[in-house]
Amino acid sequence: MIGESSISAMPGSEISNWFPIVFGVVSVLIVLAFVYVIYAIVRNRRVLRRAGRNPDTIEADVANALLDSQVLRPRRADLESQLAEIDRLAESGAITAEERAAARLRILSG
């Protein structure tokens, strides 16, 4: 009798009653998150395949397209400073006229 009443009156006994329910809910949420991640991966791979892309190399394809685009090209001010540097080197005699022309062509062609 004393043992029975003291167990139910112990602090934290309500928490221990809720623990299996909370643990179960958290476990279900974790499993649902894993299922969603797997679903999203499969869906994205299907979309890429339908678009004619290789899902295994898409990151390299995007990186290559970005490098070939105008996004990473130097701005006009950078081009002007590079051309001025080439002219300065040619005037100081550090490079020949042919090297200057080749460097200017390389800079202007991108």
Could you explain how this protein is built, in words?
This protein has 110 residues and is an all-alpha fold. The chain has two domains: 1-72, no CATH class; 73-110, no CATH class. Helices cover 78% and strands 0% of the residues. The chain contains five helices and no strands. Helix 4 (76-92) runs antiparallel to helix 5. The longest helix has 38 residues, at 13-50. The radius of gyration is 34 Å and the shape is elongated. The mean pLDDT is 84.
Percent of residues in helices:
over 70%
* H-E order: HHHHH
Provide mean pLDDT, rounded.
84
Number of helices: 5
**What global shape is seen?**
elongated
Instruction: Give a quick account of the main beta sheet: strands, pairing sense, barrel closure.
Output: none
Could you name the ranges where pLDDT drops below 50 across 5 or more consecutive residues? none
Structural domain count: 2
- Rounded to an integer, what's the Rg over CA atoms? 34 Å
Tell me the number of strands: 0
For the record, give the distance between the C-alpha atoms at the N and C termini, rounded to a whole number. Answer: 90 Å
Q: What structural class do the secondary elements suggest?
A: mainly alpha
